[in-house]
Amino acid sequence: MQLWDRILSEEEKMLRRSVRSVVKKHIAPLAQKLDEEEGFPWEQIRSLADLGILGILTPEEYGGAAGSKLAYVLAVEEVAKGCAATALVFFTQTHGALSLLLAGSEEQKQKYLPQIASGEILGAIAITEPNAGSDAAGMATIAVRDGNEYILNGNKVFITTGDKADVITVFAKTDPDARHKGMSAFLVEKGTPGLIVGKTEKKMGVRGSSTAELIFENCRIPAENLIGLEGEGFRICMEACDYTRISTAAQALGIAQGAFDIAFQYAQERKQFGKSIYDFQAIQFMLVDMFTEITNARLLLYQSAKLIDEGSREFTMEASMAKAYCSEVAGRVTDSAVQILGGYGYIRDYQVERMMRDAKITQIYDGTSQIQRMVIARNMLKRLD
Ligand SMILES: Cc1cc2nc3c(=O)[nH]c(=O)nc-3n(C[C@H](O)[C@H](O)[C@H](O)COP(=O)(O)OP(=O)(O)OC[C@H]3O[C@@H](n4cnc5c(N)ncnc54)[C@H](O)[C@@H]3O)c2cc1C
């Protein structure tokens, strides 16, 4: 038994086995082609829907699996191990449901959550703007109430699944003069007049996911699409980010594990100077450091998820530590994996170069490593007095 398995329940281990088997059969074999073709993982998401895990965090009454946060982490990690882009689209689906789970009305939950959980519709979350990335409260998209409607105007950029999503959680200012207190959250459906899909980005990694610009031009939505109350958007966004950071941490951990597995096996098979390169201490020590860092990252992430499962509402610092640490481990581990494979590591067929490119984004989205450190520093002052 591995050290981290001591934290998992039998149910969670069972879920991990099921996801692992689906990833092995239906997701990992398509990862390289998906990356090359810069496609969208339709089939892969369908196989996760068939497994019943698209609504893993959603309560059963709304068609979800009511799984633990730890089960969710295991699922994202397993998918990312085989294909980081599919993991991104998978957790973006969960993120599409998050604001509803945190602050949605009963009608909104009933209308959207079962369809998101079944994969009938795709979700997305739109916060980032051309001039408001790390500083989300600096956003300029505005929503003006007009009778029974809101009119949205503004631009969002880098929205995962933005061009394909059927329902998008959009954050906008209902009071443009107030910073974070003027933010509100809305649901915008695909096809709403005034919602325009702009540029879709060409990326370094996670190429099998789509990243789109969204333009709102006098986009009218029903007033009942406001999530929570006016002015609650920043709180909803920050609470959602505590969860989204756990998702990215799990994705990063999966990428690191995937690269380690390839490098570990390769080191034992590759012969130079008449012996396997694993017999060279230089290579052994690299693999030891990779394995130790992955173990540390996993323990931090699983314990953070467990903390949430035990009902703690104070997990902002843990989520940020897990996100910053796992993503940086993924960067170092994938870099070492390419090094261990030598020239082959640089060749696409051997997969670790894809993993190295995929790892980088985990240090950027859902709050950069710098922003996570700011969050941790703020919380250290409160928690470690
Ligand atoms: C592939 C991809 C998918 C994405 N998906 C989504 C999505 O689905 N929804 C969504 O809303 N957004 C999404 N994003 C956007 C992503 O969350 C932002 O890119 C990220 O938050 C950083 O914002 P920025 O790019 O504007 O960088 P900036 O905020 O401009 O940061 C630039 C640099 O300055 C640093 N910096 C900024 N402020 C500080 C500070 N106070 N102290 C120290 N350093 C600082 C940053 O760490 C970074 O190194 C996605 C981005 C990509 C690339």
UniProtKB/TrEMBL annotation:
Query: Is Translocase there in the keyword field?
Result: no
| Pfam families in the cross-refs | Acyl-CoA_dh_1 (PF00441), Acyl-CoA_dh_M (PF02770), Acyl-CoA_dh_N (PF02771)
As its record notes, the protein acts as a catalyst of: a 2,3-saturated acyl-CoA + A = a 2,3-dehydroacyl-CoA + AH2
Q: Which InterPro entries match?
A: Acyl-CoA_DH_CS, Acyl-CoA_Oxase/DH_mid-dom, Acyl-CoA_Oxase/DH_mid-dom_sf, AcylCo_DH-like_C, AcylCo_DH/oxidase_C, AcylCoA_DH/ox_N, AcylCoA_DH/ox_N_sf, AcylCoA_DH/oxidase_NM_dom_sf
- Domain Acyl-CoA oxidase/dehydrogenase middle residues, every copy: 124-219
Task: Please state every residue range assigned to the domain named Acyl-CoA dehydrogenase/oxidase N-terminal.
Answer: 9-120
Acyl-CoA dehydrogenase/oxidase C-terminal domain ranges (all copies):
231-381
Q: Which cofactor does it need?
A: FAD
Q: Which GO terms describe its molecular function?
A: acyl-CoA dehydrogenase activity; flavin adenine dinucleotide binding
Does this entry carry the keyword Flavoprotein? yes
UniProt keywords, alphabetically: FAD, Flavoprotein, Oxidoreductase
Q: Which family does it belong to?
A: Belongs to the acyl-CoA dehydrogenase family.
Q: What name goes with this protein? A: Acyl-CoA dehydrogenase
Which species is this record about?
Answer: Peribacillus cavernae
